[in-house]
């Protein structure tokens, strides 16, 4: 049956049927140790046996490939002690405990299982390629059991064994996000636009892509987050790719998807990068604001809604080169899971973005706030300062 494909790896190792090497002697030792007990488990796998098995199962460092629809959540990262803000990790940790992968006290103190998320997605943001690293007990049918305790809009799509010191945040070389938006966001402010009827023309799409490509390279993005000052070295970020794809129509409304790949991103950075391009294309801001925003002065950069943002994938090129083909570990690539990822997007992410846009008009409402932004004031102040300093 098509239970998740990756269940064959570590789960099978515990059941003593693995064909994949995960550390020669260790496997033999575990097969001898667990062999007869596992047979008994298969015959009468009642609750107690399952509990015994999870206690006997060795703890190993793994990564989980996660997909989730972020609507209604306050981001990925758990805020221990503030239960009114529900996060994706609250639901994940609860499922890990209930399925027997981790002891209950590890759920309370996540450091005990060496838990690390690759990206801390913001409130309302979704993912199809989130990676978390942690130590779990490799119980049978591990993915199926975790997913049984998760809501349908959060899925674990894959699992791989990794090196003991692996940390999904530190070992990640780059992250790719997508942002799906209705194309009427790019209609010029002086044109009276009917949202359902609007279609993006080639010239406007070319201009959008020309502006997005300006972000490539290393820039000082202090104006694209609320957390950094202009001289903070960590505000300098490296963007590898950024472009907008061909528009497509869903339920009579035209949408397009912007993809951006960067080494790492700060809070709200992508939403502000897109927000500024929209403001320029709509005619609220001059193109020169883009260059100016990388200078030291404070520039008012609008932040596009979180709804359309999706963490697509995270990249581990250096790790894969070093450990991906060492005979013990697999490269952290998810080609076998791509079908499941595409299906999850179609079932849970795109419908949420489309329906929320139609019902709550998050993009249309946000666009109506653009006129209150002041894109020029700081430039005038700078000219005045320059005259004074002369």
From TrEMBL:
Keywords noted in UniProt: Isomerase, mRNA processing, Nucleus, tRNA processing
Pfam family, one: PseudoU_synth_1
Domain Pseudouridine synthase I TruA alpha/beta: 215-317
Comp. bias (Basic and acidic residues): 27-36
Binding site for substrate: 177
Catalytic reaction equation(s): uridine(38/39/40) in tRNA = pseudouridine(38/39/40) in tRNA; a uridine in mRNA = a pseudouridine in mRNA; a uridine in tRNA = a pseudouridine in tRNA
Region called Disordered, residue ranges: 1-58
Annotated catalytic residues: 122 (nucleophile)
Biological process terms in GO annotation: mRNA processing; mRNA pseudouridine synthesis; tRNA pseudouridine synthesis
Protein EC: 5.4.99.12
Subunit composition and interactions: Monomer. Forms a complex with RARG and the SRA1 RNA in the nucleus.
Protein family per UniProt: Belongs to the tRNA pseudouridine synthase TruA family.
Protein's name according to its UniProt entry: Pseudouridylate synthase 1 homolog
């Amino acid at each position: 049956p098509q239970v998740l494909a990756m269940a064959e790896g570590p789960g099978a190792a515990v059941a003593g049927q693995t064909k994949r090497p995960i550390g020669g002697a260790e496997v033999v030792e575990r097969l001898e140790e667990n062999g007869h007990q596992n047979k008994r488990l298969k015959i009468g796998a009642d609750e107690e046996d399952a509990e015994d098995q999870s206690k006997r199962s060795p703890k190993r460092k793994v990564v989980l490939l996660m997909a989730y629809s972020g609507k209604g959540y306050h981001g990925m990262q758990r805020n221990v002690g503030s239960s009114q803000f529900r996060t994706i990790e609250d639901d994940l940790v609860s499922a890990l405990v209930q399925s027997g992968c981790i002891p209950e006290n590890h759920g309370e103190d996540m450091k005990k299982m060496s838990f690390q998320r690759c990206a801390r997605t913001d409130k309302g943001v979704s993912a199809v390629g989130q990676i978390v690293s942690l130590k779990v007990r490799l119980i049978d049918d591990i993915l199926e059991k975790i997913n049984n305790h998760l809501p349908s809009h959060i899925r674990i799509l894959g699992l791989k064994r990794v090196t003991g010191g692996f940390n999904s945040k530190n070992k990640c070389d780059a992250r790719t996000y997508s942002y799906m938006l209705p194309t009427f966001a790019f209609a010029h402010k002086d044109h009276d636009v009917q949202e359902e009827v609007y279609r993006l023309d080639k010239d406007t799409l070319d201009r959008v892509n020309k502006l997005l490509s300006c972000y490539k390279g290393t820039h000082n993005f202090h104006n694209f987050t609320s957390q950094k000052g202009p001289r903070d070295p960590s505000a300098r970020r490296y963007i590898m790719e950024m472009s907008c794809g061909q528009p497509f129509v869903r339920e009579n409304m035209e949408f397009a998807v912007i993809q951006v790949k960067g080494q790492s991103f700060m809070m709200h950075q992508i939403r502000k990068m897109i927000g500024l391009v929209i403001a320029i294309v709509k005619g609220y801001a001059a193109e020169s604001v883009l260059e100016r925003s990388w200078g030291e002065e404070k520039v008012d950069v609008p932040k596009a809604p979180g709804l359309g943002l999706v963490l697509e994938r995270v990249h581990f090129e250096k790790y894969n080169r070093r450990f991906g083909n060492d005979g013990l570990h697999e490269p952290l690539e998810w080609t076998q899971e791509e079908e499941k990822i595409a299906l999850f997007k179609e079932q849970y992410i795109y419908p949420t973005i489309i329906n929320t846009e139609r019902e709550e008009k998050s993009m249309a409402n946000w666009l109506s706030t653009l006129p209150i932004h002041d894109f020029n004031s700081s430039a005038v102040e700078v000219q005045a300062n320059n005259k004074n300093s002369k």
